[in-house]
Amino acid sequence: MKQIKYSYCVDEEDNLVHIQSITPETRHKCRLLCLQCGREMVANLGTKKTWYFSHKAETACDGESYLHKLAKRRILEKFDSTDNFPITFVRDVPCNRHKTCLFFHDSECQVKGKRIPFDLREWYDTCKEEEKEGEFRPDLLLTCSKKPNRDPIFIEVYKTHRSENAKVESEYKIIETTQLKSEGDVEDIINRGFVEGENCQTFNFKPKLPDVRKNDVPIERFVLFRSGAAKVHKVCNYEILCDQLNKKIYPRSVCELNMKDSGSELWGENERNNTLDSYMSGLVYLINKKNWLIKNCILCKFRKYNEWNDIYVCTHYKSLGQKYHYLQQTMANNCPDYQVDQEKLNYPLSELEKNISEVPT
Fold this sequence. Notes:
Elements: E1 8-11, E2 16-18, E3 32-33, E4 40-44, E5 52-55, H1 66-81, E6 86-94, E7 110-119, H2 120-123, E8 126-129, E9 140-143, E10 153-156, H3 165-168, E11 173-177, H4 183-192, E12 194-195, E13 200-203, E14 220-224, E15 230-233, E16 255-259, H5 269-273, H6 278-290, E17 303-306, E18 311-314, H7 342-345, H8 349-353, E19 356-358
Parallel strand pairs: 6-12, 10-11
Antiparallel strand pairs: 1-2, 1-3, 3-4, 4-5, 6-7, 8-9, 9-10, 11-13, 14-15, 14-16, 16-19, 17-18
Helix pairs in contact: 1-4
């Protein structure tokens, strides 16, 4: 049978003993016992290999429960012997404007993996092993003697079995270690405390989130110029960030609009689905919201998508004596054939207002 090496055992008074506390002179002065099976241990203090404890006689003890018992003892002793026992929650924290910002997006407007420290010792002063609480008996139970009504915390040591569903789905706050595979995993908890996602996971905790502000989220910006031409800065180009929501970027622009990202506008999808692209949304919004008289080729009923060239073209370019059929937005100002696509202008203003905000001028 392969010899199992331990760094810890207990003495006859059930005190935890580390191998580094043993010397060649003291190794035989007290009887040392296995933390798991209770059989006698010996200290191996070689000159070439790392010191360790092993069973004095061959045994069926396989060390399976050793880490579980060691973790409980070490965490309990650490908690009782220190004034600070931290847990660090690691959460995605939304921007502090998320409740009011029209452009808040779950995947973008958060600080990912924000570390939120919390001192368990500040709120709890008692740690007991295998203490019954309600219908459960956690590995370790944290309570507050000064405020007995304070919600307790369960600490569960995961070696072979995770916490049962009934416990996880209860209202009890639970800290469960990641699966322990070595003594080093236990020492990591002792040295750093609990760190969510690294050496533990938590259940039923709702830590107070810090106040954070995201200013680097890209937004879509529609810009209208005096000529009637429009320009759109797409989200994917990262040209306009959310810290510029209320700041004009073109001094000579007539109006600028922040718009929710409409995604890529390719292959005539908007025309086929009878929806408005970013350019049309901005133009239709200003015409219907502000009653502005705007002429722009993008609104003309003779603007059509050409699949061959993957571009919108003017279908009247020959009759207008134009050499090329590609659109020039401002040609609408003097075009005799210009006709507004009334179907586009009838798009509900209420729907546009859900996705557009005006930049102060």
